[in-house]
Design brief:
The chain is α/β, with parallel strands linked by helices. The two termini are 32 Å apart.
């Protein structure tokens, strides 16, 4: 269950196209140390806790979203001592965690749209590569990276190539074990196929 800020929250107040992927995270999180980046109101942190995560570190730039996330922890009667919230820039905090040699078993990257159109794809690719490179460096051996792009200007093929480049630079052997996307009932206009913009991978190193 989630409290949703319909009036002033992002988009509809909640990202409904991630419904099935939240359930997938819940299944993956058992006994894992989890890092949830761009955590918003806990859409992935809450399922991770419910799935038995050892600990969740959630990074979000909005204090209002963090407050809502804390309320969602209470709403679901989950242990508050197993989740830590950090308010701040994800890129900066990923670098801090890297410098502190912090390690996680499951890293979730669900950034905002970096490329609304194909014209922005090159600039977006740099951002996606940076966060995925950092995410891979923070993983324990056999760890999982769950990474998403909601950019209509970045195709699934390009996104996969970006992640492959990040894995090469991180000097890890990585493989896709699951491909993720919006729920099967997510509507897509025939004259705007880019509307099915959500794409993601579960990567294992």
């Amino acid at each position: 269950m989630f409290w949703v800020d319909v009036g002033s929250g992002q988009k509809t107040g909640f990202y409904l196209d991630q419904r099935d992927n939240r359930l997938h995270i819940q299944k993956l999180a058992a006994s894992r140390a989890v890092l949830d980046c761009f955590a918003y109101s806990g859409g992935f942190s809450i399922p991770a806790l419910a799935g038995g995560a050892k600990h969740v570190l959630a990074i979000e730039s909005s204090s209002e979203s963090i407050n809502l996330g804390r309320e969602n922890v209470l709403l679901n009667k989950l242990p508050e001592n197993r989740i830590e919230w950090i308010e701040g820039d994800v890129f900066q905090n990923l670098r801090k965690l890297r410098d502190q040699n912090r390690k996680f078993d499951l890293v979730i990257l669900d950034p905002p749209k970096f490329a609304p159109t194909a014209a922005h794809a090159q600039k977006a690719a740099r951002g996606y590569k940076d966060i995925n490179l950092l995410g891979l460096k923070l993983l324990n051996p056999n760890g999982l990276l769950v990474t998403f792009s909601c950019s209509g200007g970045v195709s699934e093929d390009l996104f996969q190539k970006i992640i492959a480049g990040a894995a090469l630079d991180a000097e890890v052997e990585a493989k896709i074990i699951t491909r993720l996307g919006p729920g099967i009932d997510h509507p897509v206009a025939l004259n705007f196929p880019e509307g099915a913009y959500l794409k993601g991978f579960v990567i294992q190193i």
